[in-house]
Amino acid sequence: MLQGIRSFFGKEMSLSPVQGTESGRAVGGAPDRATRRLHLAACALFLELVYADDEFTEAERGHMEGALQRHFELDEATARELVELAEAERASAIDLYQFATLIRSSYDLGQRTVLAEVMWGLILADGEIAQREAYLLRKIGNLLGLKPGYLAAARRRIEPEP
Prior knowledge:
The structure is a single chain. By secondary structure, the chain is an all-alpha fold. It has helices at 2-12, 33-50, 58-72, 76-92, 97-106, 109-124, 131-143, 148-158, and strands at residues 21-22, 25-26. It has one domain (2-6, 33-158): TerB-like (Orthogonal Bundle). Helix 2 packs across helix 4, helix 2 packs parallel to helix 6 (109-124) and helix 6 (109-124) runs antiparallel to helix 7. The N and C termini lie far apart (44 Å). It is globular. A two-stranded antiparallel sheet has the order 1-2. It contains 8 helices and 2 strands, in the order H-E-E-H-H-H-H-H-H-H.
């Protein structure tokens, strides 16, 4: 498992010692090490949400991979590999705190609110909100330092009009 993570980061997103960073990206376009860790943490939180109803549907997988591609500027293969690595990280994690803490300390309020919108989109991808999904999103929102009002506003922006 650890070898897979090292391989992913080394192959897809490596930084040579002479490269610097510009706003979270290494010179040459690849995300820097801290950004890669944030992507992995966010993806692990996404996975926790999609598994909350004990189903990970193809619609949810497609929505999640698309969100990873759009929000983290990843290609399809890298997004798919990130999901696999996050699955392993999630399986070995004791709780969500380690992922949420990393994001909370690195993202500003606006970035965390956008992340909440993505999470609502994941929950709504299968057309229904299971009780455990809503509870878990509130829990993650709390860990991310988002007040309930921010979560409600994020949901309104994502939820389709009746």
